Amino acid sequence: MRVTQQMLHQNSVRHMNQNLSRFEKTNSQVSTGKMIERPSDNPNGVSKAMSMKSSIASNEQYARNTDEAKLWLDETDQTISSMTSVMHRVRELAVHASNGTINDSDRDVIASELEELSTQLSQFAQAKVNGQALFGGDKKFTISDGLSIKANASAAEVLGDTMAVLENLAAAVKAGNGIDLDAIDGGMERMLGAQADIGARTNRVEATENRLKDHTFELKTAVSKIEDVDYAEAIIRLKSEESIYQASLSASSKIIQQSLMDFLR
User: Fold this and answer.
1) Residue 123 — pLDDT band, cuts 50, 70, 90?
2) What are phi and psi of 128, to 5 degrees?
3) Residue pair 61/143 in contact by the 8 Å Cβ criterion
4) How many Å apart are CA 189 and CA 160, to the nearest integer?
5) 244 near 19, Cβ under 8 Å?
6) Closest of 126, 129, 140 to residue 205, by C-alpha
């Protein structure tokens, strides 16, 4: 087959355009920091990246849920601690009231403080978080795939019949009747048990939160490997593509110039 000047010219232009296209693509990757500009650049990579991004979005929602769950658990723990402090004072007063040497005036003072403590306990039981009752029932959060956790305690779990115990205690003190310390101790044990359960659930939420952070970091790293440019490598490649394009441009100009000279002859 006879190679004509026209064929040389066409091949030269085609190669020059191919080199220009590679140079422009590499330059765009360096400018944007992204290896993939359109799905056709890496269909398999795009599919993997989309799947991982979906998992990242789910993990970020779970992370928001763990933050909310920790808020409720912390509020529950602190409120139960305040309730327990009230019960410690109740027990101190009950022991003092059991002393047979106190007079009626002392009993009235003790009973009055017990009634005030009962009111405080009732107020704690009505605590709210973001406008919602802290002890108003099960407050659950989904903190991982298939894992939901209760982030509070019910009033029944924390108090049981404690309010009735305090009411009876105040009446018994006023009347000079016997004091049921076991009932008070039982109420305190119930609160401490509920608080221990809250602590265990807090630990579980925090452990899940740490796993979510690690997993999300791993996913983001994997997505970055697919999508993001290695700048050091890309700069080297850009310089190489630029040199190749400049060389092809120079060669093409000579061929075009030669073709023009042939035409003029």
Assistant:
1) very high
2) -130, 155
3) no
4) 11
5) yes
6) 140
Segment 38-83, tens digit of pLDDT? 667 678 888 898 999 999 999 999 999 999 999 999 999 999 999 9
Q: Phi then psi for 197, rounded to 5 degrees?
A: -65, -40
Q: Could you tell me which residue, 27 or 39, shows the higher pLDDT?
A: 39
CB-based contacts of 215, cutoff 8 Å, min separation 6: 55, 59
**3 state DSSP class of 58:** helix
Please, which residues bridge with residue 150 across strands? 140
Q: Under 8 Å CB-to-CB from 25, ≥6 apart: which residues?
A: 37
As a whole-number percent, the residues of the chain with pLDDT over 90 amount to 58
Cross-strand bridge partners of residue 95: none
The amino acid occupying position 147 is L
Phi (first) and psi of residue 121, to 5 degrees: -65, -40
Contacts by residues 116-124 (CB-CB < 8 Å, ≥ 24 positions apart): 117/86, 117/89, 117/90, 117/93, 117/166, 118/163, 118/166, 118/167, 118/170, 120/86, 121/83, 121/86, 121/87, 121/159, 121/162, 121/163, 121/166, 122/163, 124/79, 124/82, 124/83, 124/86
Task: Report if pTM > 0.85.
Answer: no
Token code pair at residue 177 = 């009747």
188-237, pLDDT tens digit by residue?
Answer: 999 999 999 999 999 999 999 999 999 999 999 998 888 766 555 655 56
Q: Burial code of 164-195, b = ≥16 C-beta within 10 A, e = fewer? A: ebbeebbebbbeeeebeeebbeebbebbeebb
